[in-house]
Model the fold of this input.
Amino acid sequence: MENKQPISNSIDEYIAAFPAEIQQILSQIRATIHSAVPDATEKISYGMPTFYLQGNLVHFAAFKNHIGFYPTPGGIEEFQSELAQYEGSKGTVRFPLNQPIPLDLFARIARYRASQNQQKAAAKKAPKKAG
Done:
């Protein structure tokens, strides 16, 4: 599980490539994000499961010792205090597989990212003010 998985064409294929215990975690993350943002669509982007709503919301991926979660830098900044206990970088958080995955936090981040994308899309559609 060094993340040398074959390229998947769907999230189902991606999840199926892992051992059962990892499949269960990935399926829980998928269901959590679906529940939090029901209008989001799924795709594979950058070789990872991705949820999309007027732009990419979040990506997630399984690795040997952790789940990588990619909610963009804005998603990480907004939840910085809750994410501080996890390793990560500007756009990445690593959740160790030997600890419970905070699914509620994934849901809240996904909803926040959906709100960000919807605001950005609305701003692009808004008529330009003459000035």
